[in-house]
Task: structure prediction
Amino acid sequence: MAPVDRDADGRRGLPPVRPDLVALTGYHSAQVEVEVRLNTNESPLPPPPEWYEALLAGLGAIEFNRYPDREVTELRSALADLHDVRPEQVFCANGSNEVLQSLLLAYGGPARTAALFEPTYTLHRHIARVTGTEVVAGARAADFALDLVEVARVLSAADPVITFLCSPNNPTGRADPIADVEAVLAMAPSLLVVDEAYGQFAPWSSLEILSGRGPGAERTAVVRTFSKTWSMAGARLGYLVADPEVVRACEMVALPYHLDAAKQLAGCLALRFVDAMEARVAMLTEERGRIAASLAGLPVETWPSDANFILFRPLQKEARDVWTDLLEASVLVRDCSQWPGLTGCLRVTVGLPGENDRFLAALSESLI
Ligand code: PMP
Result:
């Protein structure tokens, strides 16, 4: 560490922050008060009233003076049933971001590399860097599909411990075809992590690789979250499904009792309402189609989406100006226009029909 001035008592005050962190800029979407919030891909609807009732009843039975179940037995077993795997294949954490962090703490770190293909979810890079893991980034193709020649080039040069995919990919929207995921798995030298935060919107899932137990299944981890389709972003709950050895590795770096009792209960109860979740997904998918059809009539470039958001690029006006016009109309979308590979792009989350109408009206007003 560089020499630091000391005061008369020999103290040197707060230590400087790790130098490798200083260069990292945070990943934060604006949290401003607006009437129509379409910037963070949450569900516009809360969980069903029966879920709240069951949660309130269950909270009363929690022994809050005791530590929670460290093994997260009930929730892992309910998730295992949902995905037709064994509970030893499930690891839960405080949001899927913490799942990603656990994977990187367990397998990444100094002198180890993670590979990813941009544009993609920016936290893969960010969390890797925070854990001291080197990041090697390849580029997706111009239409944001995976470029398998580029994937081969990056993976053979970097020999990463973890290869990240995000499917459907945030913020571009498309799910990678399962054949592409399998091709990446075949090329990846080690662990493949498929972030499926929006998995229920997609026509297929990499969970099929795990259930098929085909080649590479033991090197595949699929990450999911309760934040989107389960309408529980406020609860901070995510999980992975993988080989038991991956789960044990994540458990090694998790803090004791990291998943509180109320959250474990909230997750278990959510899984009783699969039909309601699927109905929300169906409603949002229909609305996504309606937004896409309207965008087709406006001077914007758009990309097809298998998720609950749509990426678009205004063609005749600066993205930042459009973003500001929308904000003035009390509609908040995500400004991705400065992100690598996404120059001039904005991303809108699919909301309720009335919210989407407000967005489309404000966008037309700004563009025409
Ligand atoms: N992965 C992806 C692709 C996401 O878009 C998000 C949320 N923005 C997350 C993971 C993190 O979700 P959470 O931590 O709320 O589970």
Summary: Residues 61-272 form a domain with the Aspartate Aminotransferase; domain 2 fold (CATH 3.40.640.10). The chain is about 40% helix and 15% strand. The longest strand covers residues 113-118. The pocket of 4'-deoxy-4'-aminopyridoxal-5'-phosphate is lined by residues 41, 95-97, 121, 166, 170, 195, 197, 225, 227, 233, 238 (CB under 6 Å).
